[in-house]
Amino acid sequence: MGGGWEADIDAEFETPKDGWEYRQVPPYKGRFWAFSRANMTRFAREGRLVYASSGMPEYKRYLDEQLGVPLQNDWDDLPPVSGRERLGYPTQKPIALLERIVAASSNPGDVVLDPFCGCGTAVHAAQKLGRHWVGIDITYLSIGLIQRRLMNAFPDINFNIIGEPSGLDDARHLAAVEPHQFQYWITQKIGGQPYRGGRKGADRGIDGYIYYTWNAVGAGRAGTAAAIISVKTGRNVGVAMVRDLCGVLEREKADIGIFVSVAAPSRDMAREAAAAGIWTDPITNESYPRIQILTLDDVFAGRIPKLPLLDRQAGYRRAPREAVSRQQPSLF
Ligand SMILES: C[S@@+](CC[C@H](N)C(=O)[O-])C[C@H]1O[C@@H](n2cnc3c(N)ncnc32)[C@H](O)[C@@H]1O
Q: Which chemical reaction does it catalyze (predicted)?
């Protein structure tokens, strides 16, 4: 082996000595070894050198030992929400984006607050990364969606919802001051999905759908169908409203309608509902009233519509289950 190895890289740059050899190989013409002889010897002993066919040594770098390139301001490496991740909320952000933000700006056990949490991407990321979280949203559409999303992704999750009606008075108050929010809330409370299609005010007598599966168990034939929900928040309800719902069933070719009313129905209304007849499950021959009236009292008494088998997931996109569910104690 020719040449000396006493200079380290700094000294070598100060007084470059062309032509030193390492295992009979000189550096490329006009270049110098990047490492001192001591380091080169250590790397060789550690197996960190790899040799080209010319005998030229190169230092082995392992990806998991590299710091990587710091992120710049423009994050264009995250694809938009698509496929199974998409939940149908118009402003949904990719979970990978929120995971990156949460991971970069907090530690496990910290509290993440999203005061406009939409479909809950930030709280989903916070839960996944072992943070506490508080999510706030003004609409029950969001609250219901986030509730389902988190329960699908983290089946063991435990959280509280604060601010939804917990009793009759609360519910009546919501119906009086925010009828639309009341519709969203009660529809989800009875297992349905709020209807948001079409122009505002042009719901054509439909406030939501409640999906059910008939004859799902055992009979070799099954179908998912939607009962139509109509919500009445006012004090003045009458028989004409029940007839209207019958008309909607005809128009939509639906078998069952659920008339949800804050005010108690009159006898005439109950009679009109009974006159709408029954729908019979074609396989089981089980009968179901075609128009079912449900009052707020019924809902708080735990009564639900009579349907073959509620399918609470039909009509909704299901958030994929997360592989890791790190449980954080609830803050409240
Ligand atoms: C742009 S979205 C948030 C989207 C969210 N980052 C996501 O990825 O799902 C804004 C949300 O703020 C909610 N919002 C609007 N005004 C609010 C208010 N005063 N208080 C709480 N939430 C509000 C809306 O209901 C909506 O869900």
A: a 2'-deoxyadenosine in DNA + S-adenosyl-L-methionine = an N(6)-methyl-2'-deoxyadenosine in DNA + S-adenosyl-L-homocysteine + H(+)
